[in-house]
Amino acid sequence: MTxxxxxxxxxxxxxxxVLQEYDIxxxxxxxIQGGSIKTVWKFSYNNSLYCLKRLKQPLDKVLFSANAxxxxxxxxxxxxxxxxxxxxxxxTAFNDQLFIVYEWLSGRDLNFSNRQDLSLAIEGLAKxxxxxxxxxxxxxxxxxxxxxxxxxxYESMMNKLTSWKELAxxxxxxxxxxxxxxxxxxxxxxxxxxxxxxxxxYSELTMEGSDAPVLCHQDYGKGNALLTAEGVYVxxxxxxxxxxxxxxxxxxxxxxxxxxxxxxxxxxxxVLLWYSNINKISEEEKKVLYIDLLFxxxxxxxxxxxxDKLKDxxxxxxxxxxxxELSKAPVIRELLEKQY
Length: 340
Known about the structure:
Blueprint: H1 8-19, E1 28-33, E2 39-45, E3 48-55, H2 59-74, E4 82-83, E5 92-94, E6 97-103, E7 108-109, H3 115-132, H4 150-169, H5 174-199, H6 202-206, E8 214-216, E9 225-228, E10 231-234, E11 241-243, H7 246-260, H8 265-276, H9 283-294, H10 297-307, H11 315-327, H12 329-339
Helix pairs in contact: 3-8, 4-5, 5-9, 5-11, 7-9, 9-12, 10-11
């Protein structure tokens, strides 16, 4: 039976059987996310609400992220608690599938377009990062880390952008002409970022013994930041990885710029101020963040859909993201100059 063909009755029976591994007989049980291997149930037991999740990752990945969540919770971070099964394990294997039971959180999604919500979200992220420091993966876990890898990742993305020029040249259509018209300016921007990264303190910040690295969420945004009566909670930690805080911050700042269709110094400095109120980052870390903002991640992310994933992208989208990427250069340079 495929996950697409699972009926409500089948999923209800599956959850009931899994919860027997916790000595739990749910009073109410409902599927709130289905249609794929990643399935989420909400259930009540002893006047409390819980979440049962079926995971799509293999065990070694789940060992890394689940134990990270337990560590962050014990360190005072606002993440849902994981309920141990009757064997005192956080992960339950059933029918060759993996499951975890979490505390259910009541709250609302934060709106990252609202200034007050954004400040709460950034402070919540800072608290999450701070609580993750010191985490060490257990034996058998597949460690996820981006530390020290940025220069090679920059070069890899630049090589792909260059190789796609040949692909675009062999195709007709306005989207390919738009790519060829835009990509050289984007490659110049990427080369500037790589040169600045190599001159920065990036290697020292990411080397063993540095206190800068944290566990980054990698997908922190609406839906993963929940405002509760106890503050902002961070949920869905499946993709956590070791890196500098700037990984999460870069994605948030970039999304703000995309939504507003412009870059500005104030919003970037506001994000860093809110963040540093909870988890102070050094001037050298700020420089590395600004350099990462300079790299054309957003252009690459868009055109990758066209040449790697073979999805049609409109020429106007390529032109719009190019204008946004090129317009940030003076803003980022001004931010960098403030650090020197």
